[in-house]
Amino acid sequence: xxxxxxxxRTIWLAEDGWSxxxxxxxxxxxxxxxxxxxxxxxxxxxxxxxQVRGAPLIGATAAYGIALAMAEDAGxxxxxxxxxxxxxxxxxxxxxxWALDDLYDLLQPLGANARAAAAYLRAAEICExxxxxxxAIGDRGLPLIEAIxxxxxxxxxxxxxxxxxxxxxxxxxxxxxAPIYLAHDKGIAVKVWVDETRPRNQGASLTAxxxxxxxxxxxxxxxxxxxxxxxQGLVDLCIVGTDRTTRRGDVCNKIGTxxxxxxxxxxxxxxxxxxxGPTVDWTLEDGRDVPIEERDAREVTHVTGRNExxxxxxxxxxxxxxxxxNYAFDVTPARLVTGLITERGVCEASAEGLAGLYPERAxxxxxxGSLS
Length: 372
What we know:
This protein is an alpha/beta fold. The protein contains 11 helices and 18 strands.
């Protein structure tokens, strides 16, 4: 995608051929800055601090984190230590474990002198695969928007999304945004209602920023406005992303997604979830078993923004001394999901629906291939 007209991805190999560069998403939307990662510790911190975020991008960064570790020490102990260090950064997004298992299974049988080159090659492949998966999600989801546009006679299709499931959450294109970008590029009138997504405001800061960069009409709304918009007939469909989806179709996504799904069901608004295959956790059936990340309470009690002088500043917005809880994700039961938009097609949010698209993955034993 483009930043001020210049093509960018969210992660790429630097010109030196071994370090890795990323967009520092903690500085958006007020500053566009990139960072260079030169060590395993820096890659782990980038994930932990949310300089990179979004399940697919976390997985891609973890893959490059393994490569950086192997460039320094490619021994067995170093490989296992790198795996463990990266796995511990964030507990909810299953792409993290998927990428780490993929790299470990590839590298463990190799001799130490072959591991670094193999890790860099596989990390690059994972990035390219993610771009292709997300573009395919766009192709699969586009007909949903086209059908609504046809029914509305060319009037704008109003899409509500939550958090950031855009190209900033992946290597490129995004998941929930991919059908929107393709529709916009095809000349279909779309308008996106962008949930602010407290407490980190990824909708207001990240989704709105990238929609602006792409020229897609949108409006930022407070998180609790979605139900009202649906009651007034101002939402044609919801499309959100997911950090982990169970094999029966329960969806774990940014906190507040469940409430949007409830409002959509009550108002007859289609509620779709866009995801690539690696985001399905085939080891879990019940969404209530997904580990929910609890983050620093300061994210709830404080907010960072740009003041009138153009400087970034952090201020306290809550009652001083009051404790705060910060659950980062919730689970939307499959019964509330209209359909899952994947790179292989749109399916029912159910064990049967997912098994139909991924027969080679369905039914695998719990924990297979995981070192956690």
